[in-house]
């Protein structure tokens, strides 16, 4: 996205505490700023800036989303806590991604439409980590129905070594939505355990005791592999199995295969093929409150990620 002079001027004013709107927020961690400027019609401009040694501001990323200020400000509060109350020596980073589809464990959370996603993450002492992710979603297109358009994913966990080659991590994640999904509230929690071998192979088990608040337990199993082919190119693939019969009416396998190109230390391009053994259905015959995700429309996925 091109950054206009106006956008830069607006963001820089925050660094001097000149607030354009009372609903706007600013977060600072050392030399990095995250700014949310509320514009017209509840459009937020999110700026990620870095203070360079010459005291000039370098814009690392810009994102524009539409979300109610009531739902957005608590999210910014969580970002504030992560940045300001993390240990001084914590290793933290952020990402801003554009994806051609939000494919999650074999089904689309965006009905095949492109999405913008953001992530802020830190690694603390003794292996503790935490973070917060944001993504656009689009589960439901029924007429005259208010449906969630934003997914918020806070997470925290602990990673620790088992031996020279083996390590593991335990984590808890939340999936929070700004509105209903298929006419019902859908916020839920998930717990997972991951086992890593060196930096190439990992296996993960996850359990959601009340997935999408449908009073059912969904378990998942994933095996992922990655290998560096060149200095800047990495091959990766994964195979998963979802025990979601109580939620979708069927358990199923899903898999992906692709490559990532690390153009610079900040920019990554990824191309991937995804597939799933999930039976199709006629969604026009389903009741409005039944939970059925949309099948993958385009199995070839592209993403662009800007990190810092």
TL;DR of this structure?
By secondary structure, the chain is mainly beta. Helices cover 10% and strands 50% of the residues.
Describe the SSE topology.
Blueprint lengths: L4 H11 L9 E5 L2 E7 L4 E9 L5 E10 L2 H16 L6 E9 L3 E2 L2 E2 L6 E9 L4 E9 L13 E12 L4 E12 L10 E10 L3 E8 L9 E11 L4 E11 L1 H4 L3 E11 L4 E10 L23 E8 L1
Antiparallel strand pairs: 1-2, 2-3, 3-4, 5-8, 5-18, 6-7, 8-9, 9-10, 10-11, 11-12, 12-13, 13-14, 14-15, 15-16, 16-17, 17-18
Describe this structure in words.
- With 308 residues, the protein is mainly β.
- It has two domains: 1-69; 86-307, Porin, CATH 2.40.160.
- It is built from three helices and 18 strands.
- The protein has a twelve-stranded antiparallel β-barrel with strand order 5-8-9-10-11-12-13-14-15-16-17-18. Strands 1-2-3-4 form a four-stranded antiparallel β-sheet, sandwiched between helices. Strands 6-7 form a two-stranded antiparallel sheet.
- Strand 14 and strand 15 (233-243) form a beta hairpin.
- The model is unreliable at 1-5, 14-31, 40-44 and 60-88 (pLDDT under 50).
């Amino acid at each position: 996205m091109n950054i206009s002079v106006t956008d830069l001027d607006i963001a820089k004013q925050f660094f001097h505490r000149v607030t354009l709107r009372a609903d706007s927020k600013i977060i600072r961690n050392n030399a990095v700023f995250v700014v949310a400027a509320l514009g017209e019609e509840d459009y937020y401009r999110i700026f990620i800036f870095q203070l360079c040694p010459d005291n000039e501001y370098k814009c690392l990323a810009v994102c524009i989303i539409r979300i109610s200020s009531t739902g957005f400000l608590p999210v910014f509060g969580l970002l504030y806590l992560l940045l300001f109350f993390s240990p001084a020596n914590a290793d933290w980073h952020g990402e801003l991604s554009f994806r051609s589809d939000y494919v999650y464990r074999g089904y689309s959370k965006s009905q095949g439409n492109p999405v913008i996603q953001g992530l802020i993450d830190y690694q603390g002492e003794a292996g503790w980590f935490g973070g917060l992710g944001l993504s656009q979603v689009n589960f439901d297109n029924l007429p005259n129905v208010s449906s969630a358009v934003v997914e918020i994913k806070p997470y925290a966990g602990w990673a620790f070594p088992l031996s020279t080659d083996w390590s593991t991590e335990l984590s808890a994640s939340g999936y929070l939505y700004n509105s209903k999904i298929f006419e019902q509230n859908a916020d839920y929690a998930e717990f997972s355990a991951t086992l890593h071998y060196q930096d190439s192979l990992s296996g993960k088990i996850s359990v959601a005791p009340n997935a999408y608040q449908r009073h059912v337990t969904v378990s998942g199993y994933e095996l992922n592999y990655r290998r560096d082919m060149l200095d800047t190119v990495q091959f990766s693939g994964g195979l998963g199995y979802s025990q979601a019969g109580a939620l979708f009416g069927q358990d199923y396998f899903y898999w992906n295969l692709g490559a990532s190109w690390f153009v610079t230390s900040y920019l990554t391009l990824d191309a991937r093929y995804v597939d799933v053994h999930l039976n199709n259905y006629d969604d026009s015959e389903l009741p409005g409150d039944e939970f059925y995700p949309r099948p993958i429309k385009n199995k070839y996925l592209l993403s662009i990620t800007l990190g810092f």
